[in-house]
Design goal:
Layout (H helix, E strand, L loop, with lengths): L44 E6 L2 E6 L2 E7 L3 H8 L39
Antiparallel strand pairs: 1-2, 2-3
């Protein structure tokens, strides 16, 4: 998951826009512009992973979905800076991390992790 501010950094392929799985894929929808959110700052983020199938949602807009380890996934990863990391996206179990390494404040609230089974 990348930034949540509605922009892509310079030199970006556009795959780092809101909700993208870094440069590994993004849709052209803008989850911050639906009619019901005009003038509000609301970020409802949801990730759903069921086996290899992964979906990223922001404000009830599905912004990206992909199949981990598929030929399409492998090609997208190979086109990013993560191609130098042979284990990137390969773990089937692990830890969940949150990151805030950009300027400005960062806060998390009501983080919930649920099993889909």
């Amino acid at each position: 998951m990348s930034q949540l501010n509605g922009s892509s950094p310079p030199n970006s392929s556009g795959g780092t826009k809101d909700g993208a799985s870094k440069d590994a894929g993004s849709k052209d929808q803008d989850p911050f512009k639906p009619d019901n959110l005009v003038g509000k700052i609301v970020v409802l983020e949801r990730f759903r992973a069921n086996g290899a199938h992964v979906e990223h949602w922001l404000n009830d807009v599905k912004v990206v979905e992909y199949e981990l380890w598929s030929p399409d996934w492998e090609a997208k990863v190979a086109a990013t800076k993560f191609k130098a990391w042979p284990k990137f996206g390969r773990a089937k179990r692990g830890h969940i991390g949150v990151q805030g390494d950009h300027a400005g404040a960062l806060a998390f609230r009501n983080i919930r992790i649920r099993s889909l089974s």
